[in-house]
Amino acid sequence: MTNGELRDKLALALEDMKAKAIEMGIEGVATASVLNSGDTVDWIGEMKVVGSYCNWKDGYNLVAVAWSKCGEVIATGADSGDPNHQTITGELGYAGGAYDEFLHECFEKLHGTIVSCHLKDILLKQEYTFQLQECACGEGTLDINLYAQLATAENPHMPMIIEHLTTDEEYVASVLYVRDRLS
Fold first, then answer.
1. How confident is the model at residue 99 (pLDDT cuts 50, 70, 90)?
2. Which secondary-structure segment (H or E) carries 76?
């Protein structure tokens, strides 16, 4: 089957998924992908957004999660929801995610040179262009537990700076949130 024929079939499947999601009152991202093996191996994928491409409340980029889950299924050959599937790098914010790997890599490469850390949690703003908004620690997408663990492994007395917040309450909440994770 040609790549074009596969795309047409995936588009039809996604229209059915979209109709079912609307019927069920579900918002999010649906993906469909296949490996097309011939002289070369091509990954053919299509996506359909229903309502929103981001879970703003919990800070998840649903498009990124959906594509990483498609890649996971193709790489492992197991359903994404299978509790026995092997977790692989690239699952974005889930166990073994690329973001965690990036934090590990940064601390590893800078080992011995880090004298202080800035704790900056962020949210992706729901705007027409890509915008990141700094927020109180624990309200964004940074894995504060991992960040604090890596920082204190570098130096048990590592100075951690929290800045760019709007209110005293945000600072107090951030300090308490981080202190709880360092205890």
1. low
2. helix 62-76
